[in-house]
Amino acid sequence: MFYGWYIIAALFFATFLSIGARQGFGVFVKTWEEDWAVSTAAISFAAAIGTLVNGFSQPVFGWLTDKFGGRPVLLASFFVTGLATAGVATISSVLGLMVLYGFIISFSSGGIGFQTTGVIVARWFEKKRGVAMAVLVSGGSVGGLVFVPFLSYLLIEVGWQTAWIITGLIALLIGIPLLLIVVKSKPDDIGLTIDGVDPNSEEGLLGSTDAVGPKFVDKWFAALSSRPIWQLSFGYFVCGITTTSIAVHFVRWANSEDITTGTAALAFGLLSGINAVGVLVVGLLSDRFQRKNLLGGVYLVRGLAFLTLIFLPGDIALWAFAVIGGMSWLATVPLTASLTADVYGVRNLGMLFGLANMSHAFGGALAVFLFGWAFTNWGSYNVPFVVGAITLLAAGVVCLSIREKTNSVRFTRINQSNELDSGSVTAGAS
Amino acid sequence: MPNPLETVLHHSEPIDPTLWEWLSLKIDDVLGLHSSAMVFILGAVTVLFPVVVMLLVWRRHRITRHD
Questions:
Q1: Where are the domains of chain B?
Q2: pTM surpassing 0.95?
Q3: In contact, A92 and A36? CB cutoff 8 Å
Q4: How many A×B Cβ pairs under 8 Å?
Q5: Which of A71, A139, A148, B30 has the highest Cβ tally under 10 A?
Q6: Helix (H, G, I), strand (E, B) or coil at A404
Q7: Residue B13 and residue A371: Cβ atoms within 8 Å?
């Protein structure tokens, strides 16, 4: 088996633990409210700081990954995050939570984000980049499904302090050895090639292991003068607007339609389950078809889901949205990361994908505020949902207009090989 | 203003505590296991996966060295 799949397994665990632990924060809120005699709003403030700090940290770690490689960034981030996570057990006030969780953990865990792990995957995989990214992303979904309940039951059995110490120890005593033993920043580090191509094979001799695309850049800011990065970032900004707003307002919208919180939660659980499957299916398809078509399609499908919220009766809309929206929920991540790598290469992928992630976070923060403002003032979510559907339609059209066949190394290399077969191009030249 | 903690299950936002309370009750209803059993099962899943990956890589290194 190609060694890259072991790397995927290790990064899957890193994502599982990182996202699982961050989502698990919500499990402890009520206990902290009672222990520290504080309001939900005070604890929410620490979480809100954490969300913003995490968003800002992503381009920083992306830049560090491009400069030093994914492995050292991942290890350092895991070490600091693990230590700080165990340290949460010593906190006795919201101020401590703000410092340790809001700033330190939220910043350091940015180094375990997709702009670091995605770069490592992109350096190991090219032909199966889509499915490899999808497996990586699904680690987050599984983390939510397994680690959040784990933390919840730990809280019941051993209390919140010990639960945080155990989480930190899992990161330090299991996560770090796993990453140290398994993860290498790039295939060259252990004498392998991308996709495990034999350098002496016909494919290897054709130079496919270090192919260069027409838009590959030496400096990340050079990419900003081309269209695809803006097209992809616009799509990701809209992704942030439409996922974060729904995550925050879905239950409240359901209540406004006389649907109980429990039923809304069940529908959102269904959405989460479908997205775990959807992301893997999209990943598999993306290695066979043009990724921009799938990405555009995902945004249009999500736009359709938003339309159901406007035009269908509340109880039908709830389940229609869960099924249709679920198919598109996380699928944008592997597609955007893979397409960015295909167009600009992996040298500056960390910084470029980090910027896209930041635009996602900012889009989400803006939408949460505006959706709330609209509901407070107009008493309905119809206008925000129409805006969501329009922005998704725009994102779909923008992504469909990406010229993948002329900009992506996947297709330029195919053209090059075809020309090579006819003897018109020198091997390795691009 | 909406509560920032009410962000659920997309990327890395914290789970909504109210949603989780309801979900955990449902899990308890369906599975009917004691919380210590759930800690053991979920903890085993969490710990065994990386251990198995490390063992497989170690085995691969050993085989490669012998070859």
A1: 1-32, 34-67
A2: no
A3: yes
A4: 161
A5: A148
A6: helix
A7: no
Q: Cα A190 to the chain's mean position, in Å?
A: 28
Contact by Cβ (8 Å): A56, A184: no
Q: Which tokens in the block code for residue A314?
A: 């509340």
Task: Look at residue A399 in the predicted model and tell me its pLDDT.
Answer: 96
List domains and CATH numbers for chain A.
Answer: 4-199 (1.20.1250.20), 220-415 (1.20.1250.20)
Return the ∠ at Cα A12 (arms to A7 and A17), rounded to 5°.
130
Q: Can you tell me the distance from the alpha carbon of A21 to that of A16, in angstroms, rounded to the nearest whole number?
A: 8
Count of Cβ atoms closer than 10 Å to residue A176 Cβ: 16
Task: Using a pLDDT cut of 70, give the percent of chain B over it.
Answer: 67
Which parts of chain A register pLDDT below 50? Answer: 208-209, 415, 419-430
ipTM of the complex: 0.79
User: Confidence class of residue B4 from pLDDT cuts 50, 70 and 90?
Assistant: very low
For residue B22, the chain A residue with the least C-alpha distance is A262
C-beta atoms of B6 and A251 within 8 A: yes
Partners of B25 on chain A (C-beta within 8 Å) are none
- pLDDT tens track for A344-383: 888 888 999 888 888 888 888 788 778 888 888 888 889 9
